[in-house]
Amino acid sequence: MKNSAMQNIGFKALTSVVALSILAGCSTSSKSGDAPGSGLPNTAAARSETKSGYRLPAFEEKRLANGLLVLFVPDQNLPYVSYSLLVRAGSVQDPVEQAGLASMVAELLDKGTKKRSATQIAADIGQMGADFDASAAVEHSMISASALSTQAEPLLKNMIEIVTEPTFSETEIDRVRKQLLAGIERRVDNPDSLAATAFDQYLFGSHPYARPVSGSLSTVKSVKKKHIIQHYLRYYRPNNAILSVVGKFTPELAAKIEKEFGAWQPREVGPAKFGPVPEVKGVQIQIVDKPGLVQTQIRMGHLGIKRQNEDFLALRLANTILGGAFNSRLVNRVRKDLGLTYTINSFFDARQDAGPFEISTFTKNNSVGQLVSETLKVISDFKAKGVTQSEVDAAKGYLKGVFPTAIETPEKLAFNLMLLRFYGIPDSYLTNYLGDIDRLNVGTVNQAIKKYVDDKNIKVVVYSTAAEVQSQLAPLGQVEVKQAADVN
């Protein structure tokens, strides 16, 4: 459910690409002090500036008796308020046979409660000129609502009712199921999406990270109302969630939020369970065949790191040099020198468990073999020779330059504070970020490269017309062919 009334306020910056790419996978704990003039105690206002010259803006953090962690991030500049609830339940919690369950639960939250129908909820939120959105991701679900500050209390009432009193009617379940199935059926016609899904499945095997958030045709069809209710009752609990309140709000509203959300009943919730990942031996290539494609999507990589890895920043800087910025080795060689693609990039997606190290690109069918070969050479050279001082200096400048955009608004700050807490990373990741980047050196970065980048054992997914690319890839490694219809 979306409304344009809030676009000029910029609430949607909460989920901006910058915030996700710069600080995804962060978490925190804070101590309480007093924020002068706000009427609210504050964890950050009284902090002295760090050596890097950065100090967190004022915010308050409270743990309610039921376990709900609440972040109050005031913003007096614009007349708005937003509520965002991060629930520690995503596709990793889905049973194998009901993949897509978390996504269905999130989609159904505002489709009817004990008090109102889906139509009534939509009308009431629309009348307020508010935005509401709920969706699931790999490791968590996010429910967000925003409106002008004059609607703060009615919006809060709606948010609490939707989150704590959904009814999951059979009619709405069937409707949401049809929408998800239609999207899954269209996946084969979206080369970028299908290649990403195929790579996850090829790399992770039976590990939960292999499952598409939206599920597959067979698993979504198998989800019943009882599964939806069980997932909701198990995971949508205050002690399994983080709430952020951002904008122009009063101490009275803050007290009301604590009272209303404080009535939500807790329940013991176990941690996500992760299985083993298949071992990669040599260069393993999977062609996902769809006859008629004239352009090939390519994904390649191997297992990466957990978010709490102590070498996280060193590896982030190393990846910036390899393929995480426009002026990177992969871009310079594969795009600029050889003209084999318009874009190529690499990233380490650090998660609760070890996420993927992945390279993403595309090319014409007749240049697939050359592109894969040249990319492997760049990785091998990167591993063998490491980085130079000039590359490290340039990457430091880039990372320090984009850092402010990740926390430049209260919405972005709140989002990243929630992520920090989700992954168990201290606030010092933010306050010390610039200084920690400065302290990285060539030796530290090269050690991280040698430890975490593997140029010998790597998986490659090629979404293309097999008849046109198989002979190009055969000299590079072990090749298998899979039909596009089997990626689900």
Short characterization:
This protein is of the alpha+beta class.
Q: If you had to describe this structure to a student in words, what would you say it looks like?
A:
- Helices cover 41% and strands 18% of the residues.
- With 488 residues, it is an alpha+beta fold.
- The strands form three sheets. It has a six-stranded mixed sheet, sandwiched between helices.
- Helix 4 (152-164) runs parallel beside helix 9.
> What's the CATH topology label of the largest domain?
Cytochrome Bc1 Complex, Chain A, domain 1
End-to-end distance: 27 Å
The shape is globular
Beta strand % = 15-25%
The main sheet comes to: 6 strands, mixed
Report the CATH superfamily of the largest domain.
Metalloenzyme, LuxS/M16 peptidase-like
- In CATH, the architecture of the largest domain is 2-Layer Sandwich
Q: Could you name the CATH class of the largest domain?
A: Alpha Beta
Stretches where pLDDT is under 50 for at least 5 consecutive residues are 1-22, 24-52
Oligomer: single chain
Helical percent range? 40-55%
Mean pLDDT: 89
**Rg result:** 24 Å
Total beta-strand segments: 14
In total, the number of domains comes to: 2
Across the major sheet, the strand order is 3-4-8-5-7-6
Number of helices: 18
Structural class: alpha+beta
